[in-house]
Amino acid sequence: MNPMILLQFQGAWERFKNHHPKFPLFMKAVSENALKEGSIIEITVTTPEGRSFQSNLKLSADDLELFEQMNQLFGK
């Protein structure tokens, strides 16, 4: 992985955490208590105009392996 891209990502992540301080705490609680095979993740995005987009997925063992690899790559 290009170290410059990683540095840019880290800076962007720090800005994101500053703008949304509760989100990392939420993700930590979820990762420690709810990411299990068979868990369902649901997400809704609402635009400023009021349009709503929704999706969900049921976590598989492969998904959990990907999350673990990402955790090792980017750290907690």
Can you tell me about this structure?
This protein is an alpha+beta fold and 76 residues long. It folds into 2 domains: 1-33; 36-76, no CATH class. Helices cover 57% and strands 18% of the residues. The chain has helices at 3-19, 22-33, 61-74; strands at residues 40-46, 52-58. The protein has a two-stranded antiparallel sheet with strand order 1-2. A hairpin with a 5-residue loop joins strand 1 and strand 2 (52-58). The radius of gyration is 15 Å and the shape is globular. The protein starts with a helix and ends with a helix. The mean pLDDT is 91.
The helix content is 55-70%
**Spans where pLDDT lies below 50 across 5 or more residues:** none
Distance between the termini: 18 Å
What general outline do the C-alpha atoms trace? globular
Compressed to H and E, one letter per element, the order equals HHEEH
Mean pLDDT equals 91
Strand content: 15-25%
Radius of gyration using CA atoms only: 15 Å
* DSSP summary, beta strand count: 2
What is the strand arrangement across the widest sheet?
Answer: 1-2
**Discrete helix count:** 3
Tell me about the biggest sheet? 2 strands, antiparallel
| Count of domains | 2
Which characteristics define this entry?
76 residues, alpha+beta, 2 domains, two-stranded antiparallel sheet, 2 strands, 57% helix, globular
Short description:
The protein is of the alpha+beta class and 76 residues long. It has helices at 3-19, 22-33, 61-74, and strands at 40-46, 52-58.
